[in-house]
Amino acid sequence: MAPKLVFVALVSVLALLVAPIPSKVSATKPSPPMTTGPTNYTAIAIGGVVFCSSCEPPVYANSSPVEHAVVRVSCFDKNWKFISVTTTSGAGGFFYITWDDVASFDPNRCKAYIDWSPLSFCNVPLYWPGTNVANLYLVEVKPVPGGKQGTYSPGVLFLGPPNGTHCPPKH
Asked: CA-CA distance, 85 to 17, in Å (whole number)?
């Protein structure tokens, strides 16, 4: 019986700690409360970069950024509804997406893809062996008006030569 009482006491203390503290009365209309999802962030951003993998070793060091590549982030929300957002990489191969439906965002149910490359000689997405997608990882949490923004990234997304094409052999 004592462990149950201790558990109830801990839950009660935690509830008091996370309960909102009443603010002063204001004559202005209060803004609506910010909605958070499974991440407890009030804003979600997803960013990364697209590179064309080089044939010159070291491959990653000699790769080039790809502008105008189409990147897609697809997720299942908390009710398993499919949501997909696309964007185009800009200067330096960078892409950035803001996720509007914060309440439904769950990074564990999201994947990033390269849907299209403007380079005919570098248009096949390269992912980790055995996968055909890139996972999202939390890279930054920063304060924003009304809460916190979580920034996620699949990291660097690489493209390689078309299927059946290989880098020329070294002599």
From this structure: 37
Rounded Cα distance between 39 and 42, Å, is: 9
Average pLDDT of span 84-90: 95
Please state the rounded mean pLDDT for residues 124-131: 83
- Counting DSSP H helices and E strands in the chain, the numbers are 1, 10
Query: Amino acid letter at 136?
Result: L
In one-letter notation, the amino acid at residue 17 is: L
pTM metric for this prediction: 0.70
Residue 92 DSSP symbol: G
> What percent of the chain clears pLDDT 90, i.e. is strictly above it?
37
The domains located in the chain, with CATH, are 34-160 (2.60.40.10)
Nearest Cα neighbor of 125 from 167, 168, 83, 66 is 66
Helix H or strand E segment including 157? strand 147-160
- pLDDT of residue 34 exceeding 60, the answer is no
